[in-house]
UniProtKB/TrEMBL annotation:
Domain Phosphatidate phosphatase APP1 catalytic: 162-309
The organism of origin for this protein: Mariniblastus fucicola
PANTHER family: PHOSPHATIDATE PHOSPHATASE APP1 (PTHR28208:SF3)
Name by which UniProt lists this protein: Phosphatidate phosphatase APP1 catalytic domain-containing protein
Entry GO MF terms: phosphatidate phosphatase activity
Lineage, broadest ranks: Bacteria, Pseudomonadati, Planctomycetota, Planctomycetia, Pirellulales
Record InterPro entries: APP1_cat, HAD-like_sf, Mg2+_PAP
Domain of life: Bacteria
Length: 352
């Protein structure tokens, strides 16, 4: 079982994890990059309060104590319990030139900065030009520390097709509507992909689509979500998750989702005013309502809208009618799995 005695003092070392970076070209020719990540202290040693919360979490999930000793649980719970390394300066190195990011790590260890990089540096660091997105290698370092990480920033062209996709119950089986199942699927079980979604997204990627995963899942689940992408072959894309703090009452707000998705989607639409967008979500959260508001705010920008209709929480017919009125009957549909989505979206993707 997890040792419930208070953790002792230990020497700590800063760790740095970068999140997916992305950027777009300005009228000047320079590139504006969105860089983010988190810094924390390792090793993670649970405090008395944290151990009490872990025991309570186990009671809610109704799992055997040995399940909470497995690497799967410990690897997923650790990021929620790690001590943040706050107020640290992060340096980004592009093409051999270092740039000190303006904002330091926040109280939760996270950082997010916009960085302007000269076009000549980007051209030299990227291997030639491409009609689609380019990949820019970037090294991130904690100033004055040995903690480093690398990230490949996706440089998206001004025109093209972008898929905005939810994660939970859209591409990943989470069962958000059942608290115990959600927690078990989050902390105990291997992540599972919804049938056929990886194959459909792969087909869209071959058509030149770029992907933006916008979810209410917390950033602490970033690494297992990347494993989900790798294990099932989901396309690489930008990722827009939610900040979560331990004080959010025993993971209560892991279940009660916020509507930060709309802000993330709005930012993407504003950064890429000439790209076409397709929205994919599910009926279990607030995706239909959020997507409807986005369609009304950006008329003509959304070329397709698709909602996975969950059996335990089906989509309201009146809401679906409202979306059809805003979008047009041939541009939106409900689906059950990836194969169904591929078939129902075929007319939207015919022009690509």
């Amino acid at each position: 079982m997890i040792n419930l005695k208070p953790g002792g003092r230990r020497e700590s070392q800063t760790q740095l994890l970068s999140y997916p970076a992305w950027g777009y070209q300005l009228e000047s020719g320079n590139w504006r990059l969105n860089l983010s990540g988190v810094a924390w202290l390792s090793p993670v040693v649970f405090t008395r309060r944290q151990k009490m919360m872990i025991r309570m979490l186990g009671n809610v999930m109704k799992v055997a104590p040995e399940e909470m000793e497995r690497d799967v649980f410990l690897n997923r719970i650790n990021p929620f319990m790690a001590e943040a390394d706050k107020r640290r300066r992060v340096v980004a190195t592009v093409g051999g030139q270092g740039f000190s990011l303006r904002k330091k790590t926040r109280g939760n260890g996270h950082f997010r900065n916009w960085l302007i990089v000269p076009s000549e540096l980007v051209d030299a660091a990227c291997d030639g030009s491409s009609e689609g997105s380019q990949v820019l290698p970037i090294k991130l370092t904690i100033d004055g520390d040995e903690a480093t990480d690398s990230v490949n920033a996706r440089l998206l062209p001004h025109r093209g097709l972008s898929i905005v996709s939810d994660i939970d119950d859209t591409v990943k089986d989470s069962v958000v509507g059942d608290r115990r199942e959600l927690l078990n699927n989050t902390f105990i079980r291997d992540f599972r992909c919804v049938d056929g979604m990886a194959e459909t997204y792969q087909a869209w990627e071959k058509l030149g689509a770029e992907f933006h995963y916008v979810s209410s899942s917390p950033w602490q689940l970033f690494e297992p979500l990347v494993e989900l992408q790798e294990n099932f072959g989901l396309p690489i894309g930008t990722m827009h998750l939610r900040n979560f703090r331990l004080r959010d009452q025993l993971f209560k707000k892991l279940i009660i989702r916020r509507q930060g998705k709309r802000l993330a989607i709005t930012k993407l639409l504003k950064c890429f005013p000439n790209r076409d967008f397709v929205l994919v979500g599910d009926s279990g959260e607030k995706d239909p309502e959020i997507y409807l508001k986005v369609c009304k705010r950006f008329p003509g920008r959304i070329k397709g809208l698709f909602i996975r209709d969950l059996e335990h929480r089906p989509m309201d017919d009146e809401l679906f009618d409202a979306i059809q009125s805003a979008m047009g009957p041939n541009l939106c549909s409900r689906f059950t799995d990836g194969e169904d989505l591929f078939n129902k979206a075929s007319s939207v993707f015919a022009e690509y």
